[in-house]
């Protein structure tokens, strides 16, 4: 670590440059979206905005933030993420811990894991899913957006793999010291799996924040839509053939609903909270984990 | 459970006591799994009755059990369509390339990022590369059409600068599939990097210290500590991603393709979508869905077996 | 010690999780309970739910139910109504229409769900496939067919005849029964059409008149003129900006539709790319495979080669072409009446000189070009077989026709809602009605009356609410409010969209598509393949990636891959 050779320094420089270049490529689109959102609507409609606002103004943000629907949906999304995150993480941890054990430690372990795994691949499809939620009387409630996906099997598999990499001796010696599963899970497994847990927290938040289709199908009124479902209603490509028979009043709304600056502002506002989550979780990716001593 | 108990009984008191201890030891773990098992039963297994639709001429007023069964008609219907084989080939070609690069690029990036010493630089780059994941293909396609335009796009501007004729990327049958792969990797690699970063961070720091003591250079540390350390997660992600062998990315293709590139760019999902537009019956869509599931299953299970055979590692 | 303590903890957490689940289930039930509460309340107020059917029979056929009945439906919300819902969340269930239904008809409306209009199709598809349907089901043509095929739709032939009001029947006549014909399957009326003007869909050419003027050109009379204009717009710097940055004809990658498309161009060659035409012997043949289409494609390939069409049209959707139009790069396009509202208004906002005007489509020879028109209904209200008082559907339909059209004897402007005031009075809007349908010649009527006002100074036309509204907007535009240009370009007196429709009407040029009913079996099965083949072939021919003769191969394939079957079925079902 202490020797920094000339080759090492060159590599470091090149590496920095390369990564920075990639980062630039990645932020290009969001800068475009931002630039459009701060531009005048005619300039945006004419496609004249690239990376810097044209006819700078804030009206689209004012409009978006004054739109009561936007606010309602925003709160709905927050509720969904808060509930979804708690339920998902709790169940992920509860499932990953036993499944990270060997077959000899948990009777039926393999049967359990196949039972869960199958559901990643096979599903009944849209209609039975809808009918199940309907039969359980969950329609139009926030639980309809949470319970069907309450067990994120993919995350369970990821976490159980991380758990399995923890040195077994630690758990065993804790058992000998008389610790129960709960103690071992909460005092040893979870603290040592912070990077994995941070990753799954992120995946779960992003998943719930970005999901829109279930909101559309399972909510009975746009008033209850989460933000991304609402956003989808303004982003969707409209069926032009319906304009032919649209009334004058509907047609008059067309230029408003096709306003690009407004769309861009809403896209940005909707993405901002979730983009802000990552930096908070990043500290868990920065420091390595120290576990006991290493033999040989 | 029964066989163990009989074994315990014949073994006498101590064995029974051991079995009881074992039960006491295991019972909480079964309890932990119980809510998951129940929820999955209700929300995943119960709706699977709907798979029956794949074999039916489904009539909603009659339901899953009383609709007319038609055997494999729905499958044959898709199979007999003139485009099907081409579409299937396109799908596999695009999906496989996406699987390979979608795996390698994030792993490579995670390692390169980990080698950055300055935490500020590392953090900033991490945050920036993960942004494109949050923009939908509807937005990105609009931007890509501009960037790739043969008349005034920046890419062709650069190509012209170095003396290459402008290329109409989005309307070029040969280039289009690669374009899909490249743009998809560009959109998702930053997000994909996160899990490998977590894996690298989870490596016991003492291992690095030991390597340094042995005089290992930075590259040797990567080779002997980092890569073996993240291997289980890489194998896991590789195996699970095999399940996407028929998912070439509906949103992306739908927003970027056009009739001139149908021949190489049309995939199973867009194809089924177009059939579905004409034919709003769920039988065909369910049949294709089931077909995809079976293929995914076969691929993942093969990957699972291979991994456990060669890497000695069972992913779940 | 610690070992013992751990059990209760795990148990406690397990119990907690179970509790969450139970809670969830409860709150789920809660919603259902609420719903049933509401409906039981409804039935309480209606005295006796069971006697309902008997009571209604005794009632006056066209009058009010003595004991109110509850009718369920669903609603796709227009953009305007979505805004209203954001202001007043219960507006869909409590507005001038629902109050009117209850007071005047004794009908309570209960919406099972509402959804933004753009997603109506998707949501309704799920509802149909799960058989989770209300009494009155608004359906698009495909869904209508499905509801008929699966036996959900009620045969309402007699019911409609018996309960439709005189004014409703008058509207059907004004529509020449096209809508009713579309909703008729094997001689039975299976749904109530939401009428719009069939003639509104006619193609027209939109041209930048300021560019014509700059170059000293006249509006086109023939396809050759279109060619010349396209050439001049491409090569002669029509915007006088000194740069070679314009092209003649706007075109979207879909090729067919309502904006920057080819339908009108094909019609200039007497080709009907999506239509069924009489072959002279009384049989219908598909227009999309006839020789005129080939000639038109050859011309288009020439235009593309010469740069009159955007080199990149094959990847550009409406939004992208709209961008070029707004940026002032396109001077001419084939489209429909609604284009001024989007995107031409944007072009006007960007550059007030952009003077888009509408002109009739032109012919390649001496025979006048005829625009094809389709059905008048795109939505059908299907009455669910399970509905207890099916006549209520017709009553609701009558009610809309009574209150909304400004030519109705019972017209009340409050029901329609005032333009631009929906934010102040969100619950007054015609789009909140459970069933809507329009006077088929409404738009043409508005235009003709507006013309009378401006050309003959006839003040009396202002008594009509629609006309007054439009005249006011056009006056405001003329006084300098550029944002209102679209209304002027739509129904105004000079080269507006409805000037063109009126000229078609006067000269009797509309050509009725020979088949406007739901898709036949083979269309459902093979349509996707055939459409894909068509877009592929046409795009390649235009771009020069395939020779024009590729069209003949396409025709052969079209017939073989299902086209012949479709033709047979269409002729049998027409």
From TrEMBL, chain A:
Tree of life domain: Bacteria
GO cellular component terms, A-Z: plasma membrane
Subcellular location: Cell membrane
Domain spans labelled ABC transmembrane type-1: 70-286
Major subcellular site: membrane
Gene Ontology biological process terms in this record: transmembrane transport
Gene3D superfamilies: MetI-like
Residues spanning the membrane: 81-100, 112-131, 143-163, 196-213, 264-281
Cross-referenced PROSITE patterns: ABC_TM1
Membrane topology (UniProt): Multi-pass membrane protein
Keywords: Cell membrane, Membrane, Transmembrane, Transmembrane helix, Transport
Family assignment from sequence similarity: Belongs to the binding-protein-dependent transport system permease family.
Protein name: Carbohydrate ABC transporter permease
Organism lineage: Bacteria, Bacillati, Bacillota, Bacilli, Bacillales
TrEMBL record, chain B:
Domain ABC transmembrane type-1: start-end pairs: 88-303
Sequence similarity: Belongs to the binding-protein-dependent transport system permease family.
Domain of life: Bacteria
Biological process terms in GO annotation: transmembrane transport
UniProt keyword Transport present: yes
InterPro entries membership: MetI-like, MetI-like_sf, UgpAE/MalFG_permease
Alphabetical list of Pfam families matching this protein: BPD_transp_1 (PF00528)
Segments passing through the bilayer: 31-55, 87-116, 128-148, 189-210, 222-246, 282-304
Keywords in alphabetical order: Cell membrane, Membrane, Transmembrane, Transmembrane helix, Transport
CDD domains per record: TM_PBP2
Name of protein: Sugar ABC transporter permease
Membrane topology per record: Multi-pass membrane protein
PANTHER family xrefs: BLL4140 PROTEIN
Compartment list: Cell membrane
GO cellular component: plasma membrane
TrEMBL record, chain C:
Top-level taxon of the source organism: Bacteria
A Pfam short name: SBP_bac_1
Keywords on record: Cell membrane, Lipoprotein, Membrane, Palmitate, Signal
Keyword Phosphoprotein attached: no
Record's signal peptide: 1-24
CDD domains in the record: PBP2_AlgQ_like_1
Tagged with keyword Protease: no
Stretches with biased composition (Polar residues): 31-50
Region (Disordered): 31-61
Protein name as annotated: Extracellular solute-binding protein
Record organism: Cohnella nanjingensis
